[in-house]
Specification:
The complex is a heterotrimer. By secondary structure, chain A is α/β, with parallel strands linked by helices. Chain A has 13 helices and 8 strands. Strand 9 of chain B pairs antiparallel with strand 8 of chain C, so a sheet runs across the interface. Chain C: This is LUD domain-containing protein.
Chain lengths: 247, 461, 197
């Protein structure tokens, strides 16, 4: 199966290990992975700031890079949400529509398309707090939401449960937003920081050694908060654990 | 009119750990109360859908239902008035009161009357107005807007209330016991209720087929305000209409469960006709609602039943407090209706959000709140209401990210200490990021650099 | 153009497409008529359920015993004698002197522990709110299962004023502390007692 890999701008710049792990994991699972070299960004930062017009050219570049692939996989829930739900600054041609519907977040792809049942190389003997970003949770619906009385389900947890010796700890507020929110993180810095502090403290009091997420942006924010607070917490992208990272 | 600075307001609120931690915990408790009620009612999602459909149906024929309501209320002996805006509403109220020589008015909670700024209008004309709801009374005495539509003084601690009451009511400044304070409010307000010339209430639901107004309180202060004085005036936003009496079953079952996690408010009061020897007036108020009805992206906000579930769940509201929004309506619902009152003044509110979507999930009438917040951002940007700095940052980001060569040059990290974010990420200024967080540490190489070293492929581009 | 006409015109100009009014079910399967359910719901919202001893013939002494310190009873039910002639009240405000009001609810709602009371029951509406305490008689036969059933009743259409009273007056406006007996009655006591036949 051939897939194209989209590595978002901040993953490229700050969390290349998440991109590398994604690539290696997809290859281990039998995919042939292309990485279109002219890719940059999906346009989310501009669109979420109200500047859809400024996002248009970036969105067009995204479509141009990924047109023609059957699957476009990215280790970012928020970008996937933007592409599928908000990539509307450009004319909606058939190609655009196709690229939009074919873009999948990594967990979605592993769970729903590859239907992964085993990860024999994966072992992570640590206490882990799972952070489902609001994008993956409420937009992409990769897990059940506490506001709705629906039966419990969690695609990321299904995958993480295939990892040997992993142990989950539950924070008191499992799906409260961590406060990154894109430009909110600087545009509303006081509340953003407070939300991040509350989030990492919650995971810490639950006993987490690691916080794992499908979104590096959330992790970047939480890590910044934890470090400033002097909390002994480590942060890791889900791709890394599934790919066999030991720590 | 300057834009409301939510960030500054939030910083002020966050400066007091006692206040913000209580506020956050208290409202999260209410959210959890709502969750427990939801789990106890197997038909919860169906009720939400019914409520949404009934409201949508009503708003689709609002003129028809308003006329029906007026006809029935009039036949019941109620005098019905219409007000285009807040100013007209206030004039009508004043006319009714002054014609009858009323100089003392008591009222129960009504966000609409706050919208109309009725109290200062009447007070300037010699009519004393006393709020009977405890939370509203605290705010009135403190000369501050209510911060929450259901619990107006939730941002205050009991010691703050003790100070207000000591200053304004002469209570014991050293006594911050809530029971004592509530009793003081009861004792000082009661004589005013007993001597008032008129009582005003708001309206939770206006039933078209019977001409009745329904008001939900926990204190019974609407019942006091309406049943003790000889004259009752109810202010009704035109979006409060529902078609049938039996529709109340859906809304009354959803309202208090969503708001407070209790099955029903202590008093659900129905006013259909004046009592023998009494007088009743209804004022139907537009004040921008019919204009909002015409907005394709935002008319859904008119379904709102003012339950406050969105505020209770909102992680931003809980940590910034309602006062920081500078408007009658705060939190998520405020973010989507306030810009329709004044786009410039409230241009910052749709950005006081992470677009996390929790509000939409708890809304009993299924308003797509977070989607409307996103849409307002586009309008605010189009209308040049973004800050200059933000506009420039977005233009620059857009320029860099659309040109792969420019982006890659900007991203080149090799051996350079992180002083500024890669220009493609310049919309996250590090001096702001770094106030309360450590800056992200740049890796030795970017993904792209690693890829070219380890996996280079000849892809045509 | 009058304000009325201008508002209606503005609404029509909004151009919203009418949609259908949904059928509202009564959800009976979840909410049976049950006195026990009423009692639990009532107590949840701060009301008191006081069933008299099974063999008592006279209700009045039982009610009086519930309020040993209360001397001024204003009753509008035949079962309990009133300390006041109702006609002696010229203004509703005068009911503020009453310690205990006694009224009969027309019906109750099991789902929420609510009592339905109108001006026909109160005689003077303020009786439900100005006395310090309220006692309400409820015939156990006068019960509906849930609010959907309540709102199908004609009673609402005939009453000028009516209330679904669910417990005593309450507030939690000061630091979230729940206070029963805010501005209205400090307590609500419900006594199961059949209607006079």
């Amino acid at each position: 199966m051939k897939v194209a890999l989209f590595v978002p701008c901040f993953v490229d710049a700050f969390f290349p290990e998440a991109g590398i792990a994604t690539l290696e994991l997809l290859e281990k699972l039998g995919c042939e992975v292309d990485y279109p070299l002219q890719q940059t960004c999906c346009g989310q930062p501009m669109a979420n700031s109200g500047c859809e017009k400024d996002a248009a050219a970036t969105e067009q570049l995204f479509v141009d890079n990924f047109a023609g692939y059957e699957y476009i996989v990215t280790p970012s829930g928020s970008c996937t949400h933007h592409i599928r739900d908000h990539l509307t600054a450009i004319e909606q041609t058939d190609t655009v529509r196709q690229v939009r519907t074919r873009t999948m977040e990594l967990v979605e792809f592993l769970h729903d398309v590859l239907k992964v049942k085993a990860l024999p190389w994966a072992r992570f003997p640590h206490k882990v707090g799972l952070h489902n970003s609001c994008g993956t949770l409420r937009a992409l619906r990769t897990a059940s939401m506490s506001e709705i009385d629906e039966p419990f389900f969690s695609k990321p947890m299904d995958l993480l449960n295939m990892v040997r010796d992993i142990e989950f700890v539950m924070p008191a507020r499992p799906d409260e937003c961590c406060g990154f929110g894109g430009t909110f993180s600087v545009g509303e810095e006081p509340v953003s920081a407070r939300m991040g502090y509350d989030k990492v403290r919650d995971h810490k009091q639950a006993g987490a050694e690691y916080i794992v997420s499908a979104d590096s942006s959330c992790l970047m924010h939480q890590q910044g908060c934890a470090r400033r607070l002097g909390l002994d917490l480590k942060f890791i992208h889900i791709a890394q654990i599934l790919n066999g990272a030991a720590a | 009119m300057k834009a409301v600075d939510h960030v500054a307001g939030s910083k002020k609120f966050l400066a007091s750990e006692d206040h913000v931690s209580f506020h956050d915990r208290r409202l999260w408790d209410l959210r959890q109360g709502r969750d427990a009620q939801m789990r106890a009612i197997p038909e919860w999602q169906e009720l939400r859908t019914l409520a949404s459909q009934i409201k949508e149906h009503t708003l689709g024929q609002l003129d028809h239902y308003l006329e029906m309501f007026e006809r029935n209320a009039t036949a019941n002996g109620v005098k019905v008035h219409w007000a285009r805006d807040g100013e007209e509403h206030n004039r009508i109220v004043h006319e009714i009161l002054s014609q009858r020589g009323v100089t003392s008015l008591v009222k129960s909670k009504s966000m609409l009357t706050e919208e109309c700024e009725m109290r200062p209008y009447l007070e300037a004309r010699g009519i004393a107005v006393v709020e009977t709801d405890l939370g509203e009374r605290i705010q009135q005495l403190d000369d501050e807007m209510p911060s929450h539509v259901v619990v107006p003084a939730v941002h205050k601690l009991s010691r703050d209330v003790a100070k207000v009451f000591a200053d304004k009511l002469g209570t014991d400044p050293a006594n911050a016991d809530p029971y004592y304070l509530a009793e003081q409010q009861r004792e000082t307000t009661r004589p005013i209720i007993l001597g008032a010339g008129a009582g005003m209430t708001g309206c939770n639901f206006a039933v078209a087929e019977t001409g009745a107004v329904v008001v939900c309180t926990n204190e019974g202060n609407a019942d006091l305000s309406a049943n003790v004085p000889p004259l009752h005036i109810a202010s009704i936003g035109i979006e409060k209409l529902i078609p049938r009496q039996e529709d109340l079953g859906v809304f009354v079952r959803l309202l208090s469960r969503s708001a407070l996690g209790s099955p029903i408010t202590q008093y659900t009061s129905h006013f259909r006709a004046p009592r023998e020897g009494g007088e009743m007036h209804f004022i139907l108020v537009d004040n921008g609602r019919s204009a909002r009805l015409a907005m394709d992206d935002f008319w859904y906000s008119l379904k709102c039943i003012r339950c406050s579930a969105c505020m209770n769940t909102c992680p931003v509201y809980r940590r910034s407090g309602g006062i920081s929004y500078g408007a009658v309506y705060s939190g998520p619902i405020g973010a989507i209706i306030d810009p329709s009152f004044d786009l410039k003044k409230y241009s910052g509110l749709p950005f006081a959000s992470t677009l996390n979507g929790s509000c939409t999930n708890v809304c009993p009438v299924r308003i797509n709140i977070h989607e409307q917040i996103y849409r307002w951002r586009q309008i605010i940007a189009e209308q040049h209401q973004l800050s200059y700095a933000k506009t420039m940052a977005m233009k620059m980001a857009g320029h860099i990210l659309q040109h792969p060569m420019v982006y890659r040059t900007a991203s080149d990290m090799a051996g350079i200490a992180l002083k500024v974010l890669p220009r493609g990420l310049s919309y996250l200024p590090l001096n702001v990021w770094g106030r309360q967080r450590e800056n992200p540490v740049p890796p030795a190489e970017s993904f792209r650099q690693w890829y070219l070293k380890n996996r280079k492929q000849d892809t045509s581009a | 153009m009058s304000s009325r006409d201008s508002i209606l015109a503005s609404i029509r100009a909004a151009g919203r497409t009418p949609t259908g009014h949904p059928q509202v079910p009564t959800f009976d399967q979840y909410h049976p008529v049950a006195l026990e359910r009423f009692q639990t719901s009532l107590e949840l919202i701060g009301g008191r359920w006081q069933a008299p001893e099974p063999d008592i013939m006279e209700l009045a002494p039982f009610v009086r015993r519930l309020f040993p310190d209360g001397t001024r009873f204003c009753s509008v039910v035949p079962e309990v004698a009133s300390d006041y002639e109702l006609s002696s009240f010229r203004q509703p405000a005068e009911l503020a002197q009453v310690d205990v009001g006694v009224v009969r609810a027309r019906f109750g709602v099991a789902e929420t522990g609510s009592l339905w009371i109108s001006e026909a029951e109160y005689r003077i509406n303020a009786l439900g709110y100005l006395p310090q305490h309220l006692v309400a008689l409820l015939d156990p036969e006068d019960l509906v299962g849930n609010l959907h059933h309540a709102y199908q009743r004609e009673d609402f259409r005939q009453a000028r004023y009516c209330v679904l009273m669910s417990g005593p007056s309450a507030t939690a406006d000061i630091e979230g502390v729940l206070i029963r007996g805010a501005q209205g009655v400090r307590s609500l006591t419900v006594i199961p007692w059949a209607r006079p036949r």
